[in-house]
Amino acid sequence: MRAAVDINSDMGEGFGPWTFDDDVDAQMMPLVSSINVAGGFHGGDPSTIDRTAALAKEYGVGVGAHPGFRDLVGFGRRHIEASADELVCDVLYQLGAVRALIGQHGLNLQHLKLHGALYMHAARDEEFATALVEALDVADSELPVLAMAGSVLDRVARRHGHPVVCEFYGDRHYGDDGQIVFTRDVGSLEPDAVAAKVVQACREGTVETVTGSTVPIEFDSICLHSDTRGASRLVAATRAALEDAGIAVRSFA
Fold this sequence. Notes:
Blueprint: E1 4-11, H1 24-28, E2 34-38, H2 46-59, E3 62-66, H3 84-103, E4 109-112, H4 116-124, H5 126-140, E5 145-147, H6 152-159, E6 164-169, H7 191-204, E7 206-208, E8 214-216, E9 221-223, H8 231-244, E10 248-249
Parallel strand pairs: 1-2, 1-9, 1-10, 2-3, 3-4, 5-6, 6-9
Antiparallel strand pairs: 7-8
């Protein structure tokens, strides 16, 4: 059983004056240890990034950039056909925006994590994953990238010697291949069930799949999405369960 684990969540995904679920970011920020800030393509905007950074500084959480497909209407959950080079430019553009705005609050960029369909694209497409890692090696060779263990992005990053942090999705279902089952709507989840799933992963290094099998899982960070229904209840229950199990919550950095 591990002694500590990171909890990360995607934040800053509103737009202008609109926020998710009565400002769920403010509800979750005290409970997580790392956040992934939307870069403006699937959600977010400069003022939202600025507000999110101020809140992150208040609670002392690690801040990462969260680039997605250029898809505000679809919230970055629809695949867009584009070349690897074009997508890398989009990622770097969003990374730069987040880095500049959080820097105004004296914060350094902790990591990079892709969003939604772009995350899944990097998990499967070697050309894009390779182009991305090579670009990150130039932009910031020490900047960790978050990925699923065993995914194409994970393997490419390790092959290039680029730092990678593997994550476990507490609010997503897993297939027998140990990868998440991508869906646009996971429905309503029971907080106690999510918490138990996370504790099992931390204690035993396993997760139950959609077929009822149990497979091993490797990770250093737990992701709980802020746009999942009842997200604040899920993260509160998970953090309480981890603390009851003697597992501290702290940033992987």
